[in-house]
Amino acid sequence: MDHENPKFTDFLPKHVTLHIAHDPHKGVYESVQQYFRSKDECAHGPTDGFDESEWISRDDFKEAVAHDSLWEIQWYPNSPVGFCTAYGSTFENAMMCANQ
């Protein structure tokens, strides 16, 4: 097991908290692109929002942007402090990313 990036399934059913969201960007009136830009610019400065550790591929990120559709899986594997996040243009892709 990779202790820096634990797999989602390594913690089922013992994870502390699990969240699955579809189109969370729409709750803040942003496109997928804006959602990730604003999220990443706070931490890293100007960016397109793509983080390879959170997606199965750049193509899947582009697909989510093109269709303005996003699935987000977030889990807290060991405590309520540190969490892991996986995204996908489809639920299946988000699950594949979470299980990498």
Short recap of the structure:
The chain is of the alpha+beta class. The chain is 31% helix and 17% strand.
Key attributes of the depicted protein:
about 30% helix, 3 helices, three-stranded antiparallel beta sheet, about 100 residues, globular, about 15% strand, alpha+beta
Order of helices and strands: EHHEEH
Number of domains: 1
Q: What is the count of DSSP helices, taking H or I runs of 4+ residues?
A: 3
Q: What ranges have pLDDT less than 50 throughout 5 or more consecutive residues?
A: none
**Tertiary shape:** globular
Number of strands: 3
Order of strands, main sheet, comes to 1-2-3
Mean pLDDT: 80
Roughly what percent helix? 25-40%
Over all CA atoms, what is the radius of gyration? 13 Å
Distance between the termini: 10 Å
What share of residues are in beta strands? 15-25%
Helical/strand content category: alpha+beta
Largest sheet data: 3 strands, antiparallel
Write the layout of secondary structure elements.
Layout (H helix, E strand, L loop, with lengths): L16 E6 L9 H13 L13 H10 L3 E6 L7 E5 L2 H8 L2
Antiparallel strand pairs: 1-2, 2-3
Describe the structure.
The chain has 100 residues and is of the alpha+beta class. It has one domain (8-98). Helix content is 31%, strand content 17%. The protein contains three helices and three strands, in the order βααββα. It has helices at 32-44, 58-67, 91-98; strands at residues 17-22, 71-76, 84-88. Strands 1-2-3 form a three-stranded antiparallel sheet. The relative contact order is 0.23. The mean pLDDT is 80.
